[in-house]
Amino acid sequence: MAVGGGLQARRRSLRGGTSSAYHGRPLKAAGCAAAALCGLLLSHLHGSFAAFAPSAPSRQRAGKVRLLAASDSELTSKKADLAERLKAEATAAKKARSKGFAINTQSFEALIESFDSERLGPVEATDKLLTTDGLQHDDASLKKLEKATLKCLARGDHDSLHLTVDRLLQWPGLEPTQDDASATKNAQFFPVVYTVFTAVRSYCNDNADFFDMVQLGMTLEALMKLARKMWAADDRINNAMTLILNKELYEKGRDPIDGPADIIGTLGLRETFQVMAYAALDMPKDEMKHVDAVSSMAWALATANVPLASLQVKVAKGILANIDK
Q1: Are the CB atoms for 280 and 311 separated by under 8 Å?
Q2: How confident is the model at residue 309 (pLDDT cuts 50, 70, 90)?
Q3: What is the secondary structure of 161-193 as a DSSP string?
Q4: Across the chain, what does the average pLDDT equal?
Q5: Is the pLDDT of residue 98 over 60?
Q6: Which is more confident, 108 or 135?
Q7: What are the residues whose beta carbons fall under 8 Å from the beta carbon of 236, sequence distance 6 or more?
Q8: What would the mean pLDDT of 134-150 be, rounded to a whole number?
Q9: Inside any domain, residue 134
Q10: Distance CA 148, CA 112 (A)
Q11: What gap in Å lies between CA 145 and CA 116, rounded to an integer?
């Protein structure tokens, strides 16, 4: 019994010790877990608040953002101001150009009127026209120029017709190679030169029957040289001339040109050369004594491919008859 009783007592004491030790560990673990959870919560809260607290680098970035925003706003404002200023300057420049164009156009028309008031011949009028700078023209003033030039041609003397064409040949704008500034300026002025040319062409069409051989031969040669030089001029002059020629062809109901395939026909000179060839055919044989003029006529008509068999025979006979004179 004593032995049994002692054994039971030991078992109770062992069970009791075991139970208290078992129940003590969860409490300690729970305390540690709670402490860890509180620490984690405090750490999380501290981190959250720290995220809201601006650090030094974040403050610098915010400052840069504000500066960039201010710079963009200022740049936009400056762009708007610049656009307004440029718009105002463009409007003012346009008004100034319009005023200047009107003044220069009036000067051009005044120059044209001086042809009559000063009773200028065609050579003097053409020279005055080509040596006056700063003139602006429009379609109306060019029409006035053509009429005034025709009057000058009617006032001219025996040699003034071919000398007028020679003066056009001397214009620097017909040179094949020009610098950009000169070519641009000459291309703008070319319609004036072409208007004088059209006046000469028209005058020849209407008055060829009244020419003698010297007038006719020298004028044909000069016109042939002018036609070739016009097509050989700088590309910018060619472009200006092509615009004029296409306008003429359009008004006549013909197809536009794309190059100098027929340098005489494109310039409207084929009819002029044919009229002058028939005028030479009707001249007295005595006119064939002017061998130089006859040779000039023959060269121009052959170069322009204006065949007239009866005139060729007459020219050959005239040259042979007067070759020693």
Answers
A1: yes
A2: confident
A3: HHHHHHHHHT-GGG-S---HHHHHHHHHHHHHH
A4: 77
A5: no
A6: 108
A7: 178, 183, 184, 186, 187
A8: 92
A9: yes
A10: 7
A11: 11
**Going by C-beta distance under 8 Å and a sequence separation of 6 or more, which residues neighbour residue 138?**
105
CB 148 within 8 A of CB 129: no
- 222 and 127 together in one domain: no
Residue type, 159: D
> Looking at residue 320, what is its pLDDT?
78
Residue 41 φ then ψ, to 5°: -65, -45
Amino acid letter, residue 239? N
Report pLDDT digits (tens) over 219-258. Answer: 999 999 999 999 999 999 999 998 898 888 777 766 555 4
pLDDT at residue 93 above 60?
A: no
Q: Which two tokens stand for residue 36?
A: 């860890």
Are 233 and 187 in contact by the 8 Å Cβ rule? The answer is no
Quote the number of domains for the chain: 2
Dmax (CA) for the chain in angstroms is 185
Residue 323 backbone phi and psi in degrees, to 5: -65, -25
Residue for token pair 């060619």: 238
Instruction: Record the pTM.
Output: 0.66
Contacts of 235 (CB under 8 A, 6+ apart): 183
Query: Do 144 and 172 fall within a single domain?
Result: no
Say yes or no: 148 and 168 in one domain.
no
Highest mean pLDDT (candidates 20-29, 88-97, 182-191): 182-191
Instruction: Note whether 277 and 306 are within 8 A (CB).
Output: yes
